[in-house]
Amino acid sequence: MAITHKHIDEIFEYDGSQINPSWAFQEFGIYGSSIITWIGPVNITPDNLKDFADVGLEIKSNNMVNFICEFFDQQPPNMRVAYLRQRLLVMIFREILNEYGVQTEREGDDIFVDGRKLSISIASVSLSSAKIHFALNLEDKGTPDDVETIGLFDIRINDKQIFTDDNLLELINKTVNRFIDEIETIEKDISKTKVL
Known about the structure:
InterPro entries: aa-tRNA-synth_II/BPL/LPL (IPR045864), DUF366 (IPR007162). It is globular and about 50 Å long. Helices cover about 25% and strands about 30% of the residues. By secondary structure, it is of the alpha+beta class. The chain has a five-stranded mixed beta sheet with strand order 1-2-3-8-7, covered by helices on one side. A three-stranded antiparallel beta sheet has the order 4-5-6, with no helix packed on it. Helix 2 (about 80-100) crosses helix 3.
């Protein structure tokens, strides 16, 4: 399966509507499976909430790294596979953070650093595709008052800031490339495995 990655330099808000099917095609003319990344605020409006557990909660942040993944390789789309891919993305990102020396904890699809929430995520399916939104705070600003949060720019080891504007795109690309490679490797393994 070919997956196109496009990083958008323009800053814009994630309001939840970007999880809708074929958003990458409608906005950027990208056909097929894709991963769109960008930096911008998050403020999910109530009508765009997809997780029943989040109804009535605020999901917002002044500045986040956003990943929108869409896959067309399964027809009909499979919610279980969507969530497995979401968890794979989360675990790959944790693996990369560990390589930078950042220790994390995971609860489901949420990543925590020093007990503070770093990420948000959702997976779902439409009639034609599976979608994932994964986002990481850049700073502990503009997040809900009832949640202890942390941003990538807040993480320090021995008083040294680990992530800055200078290496953020490298972190994004490393995550996307490793995720795509993992999915492609699975496809290759399927194609060369003898059935029982």
